Amino acid sequence: QVQLVESGGGLVPAGGSLRLSCAASGRTFTNRMGWFCQDARREREFVSSIISGGRVVYADSVRGRFTISKDNVQNTVFLQMNSLKPEDTAYYYCAAAITNFGSWQYWGQGTKVTVSS
User: Fold this and answer.
1) Is residue 86 packed enough to be buried (19+ CB in 10 Å), middle (13-18) or exposed (0-12)?
2) What tens digit of pLDDT does each residue of 37-51 get?
């Protein structure tokens, strides 16, 4: 089992920045970690992912504004969110998977990001 705990959410004005963190514990070897977002208007959506070799993927809506990174020593993945927009407002969930492709096996509880206009 892998336990994921997110932190770093909060309220920021449009144009501001936040840095989300996700600490993994338990079975900490996961090939892939990522972030998803969800709010009342939409289903859970992919935001970004990083695999053990360092390859990263971003959703079109965040590319150029968000940066994902991972500290392999501390088993923590980060999401640096810059130039935030009101439409980025959502709960952000950390996810982890044993494989490089396919479904995600583990999920965090989420952290709320609110961007005011």
Assistant:
1) exposed
2) 999 888 999 999 999
